[in-house]
Structures are given as structure tokens and as C-alpha cells.
Q: What sequence folds into this?
């Protein structure tokens, strides 16, 4: 394909995607959004949402806890949010964030990929054709977009067309 044709079709796609925004009627209230973020990989959940009430926390994680304990953002029930998670704290203060901690699926095997499929499908055994979030969106009759982690950087901008 020639570069000019690629640029021409790419720009046509951008223009076409923006046309729906101009043609759509203006809504009185913005549509509600549901965002589900799964912290996986190297994230230490006990360092993100800290159970400050746990009497063993200081003994088991002394230096880690001491470095942040005075600057934690307070949450309900004796939890604290890591000081670097300022945006999440703002969402929590506005009633737009609910941290869910200490949950697991019944899966106890050693396959990370199977465990992830079960988590995303919400069924055991995993249902590859449907996920719990897709079922919820269908019931709500809304729209959804799934983004892999690399798109959740501070530089990514996601807009609904």
C-alpha cells in the first residue's frame, strides 16, 4: 500500500469517527460509567490498600509500613490508601471508588492463565464466550470498552466517540 493512501484512509477514519459526536443529540446528564481495574502483576495490594488495624502488620512489614504510615490516605474500617495513589483517593472521597480487598476465586491450581480466565469470566470452569462484566453490561444495556494495561498510562486518553 502506498503511504499516501494509508494516510488518506487513516484520516478518513478519524474524521468519520468524530462525525457521530456532532450528529448525536446532546444529553442533559453525562452517562454513568463503570470502571473495573484489576491490579495484577507486581502490585503489592497490602502496600496499596493498607490494613492499618492489623496487629501483625508492623511485625511482618516494619520498614515498608513505617515509610508510609503517617501519610496514608484514610479509608473506612481502618484501611489506608498508599500516599502515591492520590487520584484513587480523590475518587474514593467523591464516592466513585470502592476498594475490594482480600478476595479470591475458588481456583487453586498453578496456571496463571487459567486463573485469569476464571477471574475474567466469573465462572468455574471459565466460560470463554462470556465474562461477568460483559453480562453485567448486557443487562444494563450499556456500552463498554476493555483496555489492556499498557493503555492505562498517564499519557493515554480514551474518549467515547
A:
Amino acid at each position: 500500500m502506498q503511504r499516501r493512501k494509508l494516510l488518506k484512509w487513516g484520516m478518513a477514519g478519524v474524521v468519520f469517527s468524530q462525525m457521530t459526536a456532532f450528529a448525536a443529540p446532546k444529553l442533559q446528564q453525562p452517562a454513568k460509567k463503570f470502571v473495573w481495574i484489576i491490579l495484577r502483576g507486581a502490585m503489592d495490594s497490602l502496600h496499596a490498600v493498607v490494613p492499618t488495624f492489623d496487629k501483625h502488620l508492623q511485625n511482618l512489614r516494619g520498614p515498608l509500613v513505617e515509610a508510609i504510615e503517617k501519610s496514608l490516605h484514610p479509608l473506612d474500617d481502618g484501611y489506608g490508601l498508599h500516599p502515591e495513589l492520590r487520584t484513587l483517593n480523590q475518587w474514593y472521597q467523591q464516592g466513585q471508588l470502592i476498594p475490594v480487598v482480600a478476595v479470591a476465586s475458588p481456583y487453586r491450581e498453578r496456571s496463571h492463565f487459567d486463573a485469569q480466565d476464571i477471574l475474567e469470566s466469573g465462572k468455574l470452569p471459565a466460560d470463554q464466550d462470556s465474562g461477568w462484566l460483559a453480562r453485567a453490561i448486557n443487562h444494563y444495556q450499556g456500552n463498554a470498552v476493555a483496555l489492556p494495561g499498557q493503555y492505562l498510562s498517564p499519557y493515554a486518553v480514551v474518549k467515547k466517540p
Q: What stands out?
A: The mean pLDDT is 75. The first strand starts at residue 49 and ends at 51. Residues 3-23 form the longest helix (21 residues). The chain has six helices and three strands.
